[in-house]
Amino acid sequence: MARKPAHEQFDTLKAIQDRAFDLFGRYGYDGVSIGDISTAAKLSKGALYWHYPSKEALFLACLKRLHALFDAYIFDPMRDPGIDPVAGVLTLFKGISRLLQDPLVRNGVAGYWLVPDSPETAELAAEQRAFEARSIVAIRSVLARGIEMGRFDLGGDLEDMSRAIISIVEAVILPLRYQSPEEVRGTLGVLARTLFRAYDKGGLLPQL
């Protein structure tokens, strides 16, 4: 088979990635077949396999795309070593709000948490665990600086709080996408205030 011109390859690859990202996000790994994706992208299975050798490889590419969205909106700004810890926490919740307005999550991304536990999906599970571990480090760093600066008093809850926040970040993406931006801001504000009410030392709650 003759290789297509570069611009046609790009268009084909984008069609595959966009349709696969949407379908996996709605129906999960087991709920989507290569045939479903090729039909949605209006391509033959052969054209799809030209770019991706397996469904696992395509799901992994889509999962990394989702993680990149989380990083761009939420965790990369938090990783700025000079960010004020209060600003870092605010960035977290503002980033969630902005992520929910991204067209890519409009149809849902819950399917990325619907991955069967099997040998063929081990790499997918490992990628998700690695993403969560990196994100927890970013959150922990902001909270630890807040403790050092006397802005937060987490007692011995730093690790538990860091894990709790990543769980909240993942969980709220799913139902809040149906709400208006104003409703999202209100809901996130309540979550943030509830989460930090016992730990704030006067600098965070007024801004939340």
Task: Describe this structure as you would to a colleague.
The N and C termini lie far apart (58 Å). This protein is elongated. 66% of the residues lie in helices and 0% in strands. It has a domain at 62-196: Tetracycline Repressor, domain 2, CATH 1.10.357. It has 208 residues and is an all-alpha fold.
Show the helix and strand layout.
Elements: H1 6-27, H2 34-40, H3 45-51, H4 55-78, H5 85-100, H6 122-148, H7 158-176, H8 181-196
Short description:
This protein has 208 residues and is mostly helical.
Q: Could you please say which CATH topology of the domain at 62-196 applies here? A: Tetracycline Repressor, domain 2
Tell me, what is the CATH class of the domain at 62-196? Mainly Alpha
Characterize the main sheet.
Answer: none
**CATH arch. level architecture of the domain at 62-196:** Orthogonal Bundle
Strand/helix succession = HHHHHHHH
User: How many DSSP E strands?
Assistant: 0
Total of helices? 8
Poorly predicted ranges: none
Mean pLDDT: 85
What would you call the structural class?
mainly alpha
Q: Tell me the helix content.
A: 55-70%
Strand content: under 5%
Span between termini: 58 Å
Radius of gyration based on Cα positions: 20 Å
Global outline: elongated
